[in-house]
Design brief:
Layout (H helix, E strand, L loop, with lengths): L2 H22 L19 E13 L4 E12 L3 E2 L2 E4 L4 E7 L2 E2 L1 E4 L3 E5 L4 E2 L5 E9 L5 E4 L17 E4 L21 E9 L3 E4 L2 E7 L5 E7 L11 E4 L2 E6 L5 E6 L7 H4 L3 H12 L8 E7 L6 E2 L4 E5 L6 H6 L3 H10 L7 E2 L6 H19 L1 H19 L13 H19 L1 H14 L4 E2 L1 H12 L4 H9 L5 E11 L2 E10 L12 E9 L4 E8 L3 E7 L6 E6 L8 E3 L4 H10 L3 H12 L6 H11 L3 H11 L8 H8 L4 H10 L8 H5 L7 H14 L4 H8 L8 H11 L3 H10 L7 H14 L4 H11 L4 H14 L3 H13 L4 H7 L4
Parallel strand pairs: 1-13, 19-20, 20-22, 23-24, 25-31
Antiparallel strand pairs: 1-2, 2-10, 3-9, 4-8, 5-6, 5-10, 7-8, 11-12, 12-17, 13-16, 14-17, 15-16, 18-19, 21-22, 25-26, 26-29, 27-28, 27-30
């Protein structure tokens, strides 16, 4: 064999081997493409940011000087870019020398005289600037007179900030991204009649020589991301709480309403102690934490490091506490002091590492206060949100397009399932290790995964793959039957995964319990790893006991939808005897879908015995359909239930109030719950309009949370004396009130189909708000009115005869 022949044969053999190898390779895992994933590139790292700032609040003007202390990251850095859209840069100095700069619509580019190098040299960039931002920082109430006798919903003069996602760049020139962490220091000059809150420790508060202003100086103890920089300015008092571990908690409040402090900030100190113990890491911000309510806030709250801002619709009295309180949101934002502020996601695909964790520990703290059933009720609502998201798409949690329901609710449940798989103690050990390994750092999902591998030695690739990096949830079809073999009787569960599988959604592998309960009160249970398309689980019944009911995944530990048909008698037994609230609730819902002849008698009996208000509320809703067959004792049993949600469910489920029960329902006008007063007033006046004046007199002095009762009151009163009450209702849409009061009044006027020039003025004002929850309803209401010819002309005439700034005209141009 000559040389060339040998080379040809070797080459042929090699190609054959490669071909065979390629055909024998198994298919790799497919994940959803995510072009926006990953950290933003940067060529410098900011170590310290000093902000010196003052305001002209009536004009919404920010005047500032910012000093960035930084190091260059690359071998040669010839330009520096800072986000600063809309900011006018007045001067720039680099290392105490004037430096060339240029601005664009997105920010400012600094051009050093010589390229900076990547040695350890620290540089200082100082920018003086001015801006009139419409994002990031908000000037509330400065064009309105302060009321002489404010109520909790009257306009207030405030300045507050909201930096997440990337909005602090509109009032601070900075590299505005979560992957640049820095120690921040803020000096604010402002009117001495107001108080100022910012991040960290208050180093100084001193009067200035002008006799009008004070200087407030705050500094952070550790580095954090720039989106967490905050300011809150207004007229406040502060009540201090202290946790057992010594953390000072400053509770800011409106001085006119000290009675609202207790219901608003309830359990604040307890949750600090609980979280330190649960996380295995002390509060990481030098024993100082504050919370401040602000008006017209566009979200529920924001976890700015050491200084949470929350909407003052949570600044509540004891009656409003019954309907909606701040406890859950409070716990959520406090958990962020660890998850989001202490360890911060490197990129948007890691948002779940912040929001899922805060949502998870919010509900777990509430469990410590309100009990197991309350906790499971929260889990059930989270599961419904997660399953609803999958009706739209199968995006995974670890993805910039995951969506709110996944990065909050589904991710929270995934953490529950991880505890279910590992056990809570093992989970907590890995969690503490994860936190301690990455103090004040940026992290990603892989860092969380590694914590379990390094701490416990467990490889959770399968779990992270199916629940975090891929999408969907399992759909199970379950059947059971009683069979006999040589050993005797047994119960066989047949489980099928019926969801559609594709590259992004596969079969799920999870350990699942099945349980069989017998008439004699005994039970058998077995846990099996369900991973196949079709699988059977057998539970022995050697003594041939009669089955009373069966459960698949008791307590609903796995995110799933399930098709599991059971007969009426089994559902009744499950409703009255199942240990876990969620199993009882599932039985109740299933019973509601069955044509049961004697359901009401069974429900009356079950209602009296059921301990959890959520199930009693659903029972009350179902019982309302049988109100004609109820006696006074049963009606009063429901209407006097200790939980307002139960009373409200019965009221809302009652289509027509029988005359013999009218007095019982009229008692609801004096209820402790604002929701119930509002709904009973509407229902009673609708069904018995002849008594409207009597009902209005009984509720005349009730305002409700954000005027919820009063706007309903005005709607009814306008039917009696429109000339007297309509102007008062329209006034509630004005900028003299916070946004929820305004939108409540707008909804009433929409139903009344009433528009005049005063209301148009208030609606246009709302259209220019930085709060989308005010802006959008106002604009939509104007659009609805403009579908009517007369009202359209009224709106067009108002617009034509008034002068608007260019940005205002741009915000309403789609109306025309």
């Amino acid at each position: 064999m000559n040389f060339w022949t040998m080379r040809f044969l070797c080459a042929l053999l090699f190609l054959t081997f490669i071909s065979a190898a390629s055909f024998s390779q198994t298919k790799t895992t497919t994940f959803l493409a995510d072009p926006k994933a990953g950290a933003r590139e940067k060529n410098f790292d900011t170590e310290h940011l000093l902000l010196e700032i003052s305001f002209e609040p009536e004009q919404g003007i920010v005047k500032g000087k910012v000093t960035h202390t930084f190091i260059a990251l690359q071998q040669e850095t010839d330009t520096l870019f800072l986000d600063a859209p809309g900011i006018e840069i007045l001067s720039a100095q680099l290392d105490k020398k004037a430096v060339e700069f240029s601005t664009s619509k997105d920010g400012v580019t600094i051009k050093p005289e010589k390229p900076l190098t990547w040695d350890a040299t620290k540089h200082q960039l100082v920018l003086e600037y001015k801006s009139t931002p419409r994002k990031g920082i908000y000037f509330i109430g400065w064009d309105e007179p302060e009321p002489a006798n404010p109520n909790p919903y009257s306009v207030r003069k405030q300045i507050w900030t909201q930096g997440q996602g990337v909005d602090n760049r509109y009032w601070i020139p900075c590299f505005d991204d979560m992957n640049d962490k820095m120690v921040t220091e803020v000096k604010v000059t402002f009117d001495k009649n107001y108080r100022v809150l910012s991040n960290g420790e208050l180093l100084a508060e001193k009067n200035l020589p002008d006799g009008k202003n004070k200087l407030w100086h705050y500094k952070m103890p550790h580095q954090h991301a720039p989106y967490l920089i905050m300011l809150g300015i207004g007229k406040y008092d502060v009540k201090q709480l202290k946790s057992k571990s010594g953390v000072t908690i400053d509770c800011w409040y409106y001085p006119e309403f000290p009675e609202r402090v207790a219901p608003t900030y309830r359990y604040s100190a307890e949750m600090m102690d609980w979280m330190e113990k649960e996380f295995g890491v002390a509060y990481p911000w030098n024993k100082k934490y504050a919370q401040i309510p602000v008006q017209d806030f566009m979200y529920g709250a924001m976890e700015n490091t050491t200084a949470t801002v929350f909407g003052d619709f949570y600044f509540i009295d004891e009656r409003a506490y019954l309907d909606r309180n701040y406890i859950g949101t409070n716990a959520h934002e406090l958990a962020h002091m660890w998850f989001g502020d202490y360890v911060t996601a490197r990129g948007g695909e890691g948002t779940w590492l912040q929001e899922s964790f805060a949502t998870h520990y919010q509900k777990h703290f509430e469990r410590s206060v309100f009990g197991e059933d309350h906790f499971q009720w929260n889990r059930m609502q989270e599961m419904q949100s997660a399953l609803n998201a999958s009706k739209r798409n199968s995006n995974p949690i670890v993805n910039t397009n995951a969506g709110t329901e996944r990065v909050y609710q589904k991710g929270s449940l995934v953490l529950d399932m991880l505890k279910y798989v590992l056990g809570k103690k093992q989970f907590n050990k890995a969690l503490a290790s994860y936190l301690k390994k990455h103090p004040y750092q940026n992290i990603d999902t892989h860092d969380f995964y590694i914590a379990f591998l390094e701490t416990l030695g467990v490889n959770l690739n399968w779990f992270f793959d199916e629940w975090l990096y891929r999408g969907g949830e399992p759909e199970y079809a379950v059947q059971f039957e009683e069979l006999t073999n040589a050993a005797g009787k047994f119960t066989r569960f047949t489980v099928k995964q019926t969801h559609e599988t594709n590259e992004l959604v596969g079969l799920f592998k999870m350990p699942i319990w099945v349980e069989v309960y017998y008439i004699d009160g005994s039970s058998n249970r077995k846990q099996e790893w369900i991973s196949e398309q079709t699988q059977t689980v057998d539970i022995e019944n050697a003594e041939g006991k009669q089955i009373e009911y069966v459960l698949f995944d008791p307590n609903n530990e796995i995110i799933k939808s399930i098709d599991f048909l059971k007969n009426m008698e089994m559902l009744k037994a499950q409703l009255t005897k199942a240990q876990h609230m969620i199993d009882r609730y599932d039985a109740l819902i299933a019973l509601g879908n069955l044509p049961v002849q004697n359901r009401k008698d069974f429900l009356f009996d079950a209602f009296a015995k059921e301990p959890f208000h959520g199930i009693r509320a659903e029972m009350a809703k179902q019982l309302a359909a049988y109100i004609d067959d109820m006696n006074a004792q049963n009606v009063q049993l429901v209407l006097k239930d200790k939980n307002p949600k139960v009373r409200l469910a019965f009221l809302q489920g009652t289509d027509i109030i029988p005359q013999r029960f009218l007095a019982d329902f009229e008692m609801l006008l004096q209820d402790s719950s604002y929701f119930i007063v509002e709904n009973s007033l509407k229902t009673l006046c609708e069904q018995h309009p002849e008594n409207s004046s009597q009902y209005l007199a009984a509720t005349e002095n009730v305002i409700g949370n954000s005027h919820s009762v009063k706007t309903a009151w005005f709607e009814i009163a306008c039917g009696i004396d429109k000339q007297k009450y309509l102007p008062q209702l329209i006034r509630l849409t004005s900028p003299q009130y916070e946004f929820r009061t305004r939108t409540n009044a707008m909804e009433v006027l929409k139903r009344m189909n009433y528009l005049d020039e005063t209301l148009i003025k208030h609606l246009f004002n709302a259209c220019f708000s930085g709060n989308g929850r005010l802006r959008s309803p106002a604009k939509n209401l104007l659009k609805d009115f403009m579908l009517q010819t007369d009202y359209k002309k009224l709106v067009e005439d108002y617009y034509a005869k008034n002068t608007f700034e260019s940005w205002q005209a741009e915000m309403v141009q789609d109306l025309f």
